[in-house]
Amino acid sequence: MDHLSLEKPTMPDTLRPLGNFTPSLWGDRFSSFTLDTQLLEKCSKEVEVLKEEVKDMLVLDNDDVGRGKSAGAEKMVLIDALERLGVSYLFQKEIEELLENMFPKFEEYCHVFHDNLFMVSLHFRVFRRHGYDLSSGKWWKEWDLRSHIPYVRDRAVECFFYSTAVCFEPQYSLARLVLTKAMIMISILDDTYDAYGTYEELKCFTNAVQRWDMNAIDQLPKYMKPIYKALLNIHDEFYQEIMAKKGINYSVQYLEEAYKEVIRCYDVETEWLKKGYVQTMEEHLANALVTVTSPLLTTAAFVGMGEIATPEAFQWLQSQPRILMACSTIFRVINDIQSCKTEDERSHVTTGVDCYMKQYAVSRAEAIGELLKIIENAWIDINEEMMRPTMISRDLVIRVLNFTRLYGVVYKYNDGYTQPECGKDSIIALYEDSIPI
Ligand SMILES: [Mg+2]
């Protein structure tokens, strides 16, 4: 190749996109390598012994069957390690047999991993890599509501993130699940009332929800049927799941009541909108402290928390306790301030900002200033209510505090639910980025 470097460029003025590539790092390091055949032979023998050991580890024996789920988890970690090391091809037959054995049983034992995101994602990854059809968004995809109602905000990931903020402790995995589904459902209902349904359609829907009976589905327009079905179905699922896992049969009915109440208040908003009525601040808050959904979502969190949420705890929630009202007020007011920016262009329900401006004949900036004072006072209420002793278990009351903290994060810069870009980094940081150790 040397002669090439001696060649003079024929066209010295030609501008070429020269890469100026750096030379090889390795020199003769590998080309002068000689093989120690004796050592190679010794290693090969050791490898054969180790191979047999690994093959044994990849078989589900009687001991493993007795240990059930933990044995399955260990095998999955082993398969993943072999694949990452690039040696799984040596055990292809054993791995395939093992996965074939494990897959049908996965449904039975997967719930024990709900506290352990690593194990859930590991099983998902390995099964999918081997061609097993394991659903990634178990129930959200199954609902398939997006194809029926494309107008809704698709925020399943955000909803799970929010649920983690409210009930982050490992033992409350069921609460996160119930809360996520409840959030998605109420978000669909909110968009249906605010951003799609006509007055007449919404009247039908309001009536059907008050009946809470699958037979009422016939009276609904076609696009509303899957929504209604999903609403009733998730409640049946909650009931069965909470009965099976916690032996509790009283809690889900409180959630049903909470949905009915929110829908009644959505209906009031629909009436106001049709009449073009700008309500007083007091009228607005009385209705909007329900439609803001904090009472409903707190009920959902309690449902998922199991036996700690006694019937008395649910009755306490229904009694409009001061801390819950303060939490709802904060959410309502932050939401009003932020969403009045995005909803201005279209016909929308009147926000607290509009009510305040009209009632007190002040400018938008002045109204927002006054509303911020309401938030400050509500925080004082919350801090006082968190003092011991609390009316119900403090572990439950903390959820109301967590919701309030969450609203501050989601609505800090804009309506972070409608425009989720601001929260994207937090979600990636929590679920994807590992913490350097
Ligand atoms: Mg709404």
Automatic annotation (TrEMBL):
MF GO annotations: magnesium ion binding; terpene synthase activity
Cofactors, names only: Mg(2+)
Xref: InterPro entries: Isoprenoid_synthase_dom_sf (IPR008949), Terpene_cyclase-like_1_C (IPR034741), Terpene_synth_N (IPR001906), Terpene_synth_N_sf (IPR036965), Terpene_synthase-like (IPR050148), Terpene_synthase_metal-bd (IPR005630), Terpenoid_cyclase/PrenylTrfase (IPR008930)
Domain Terpene synthase metal-binding: 141-379
Pfam families per the UniProt record, alphabetical: Terpene_synth (PF01397), Terpene_synth_C (PF03936)
Natural source organism: Rhododendron simsii
Keyword Lyase: yes
Family recorded in the similarity comment: Belongs to the terpene synthase family.
Record's keyword terms, sorted: Lyase, Magnesium, Metal-binding
Name of the protein: Uncharacterized protein
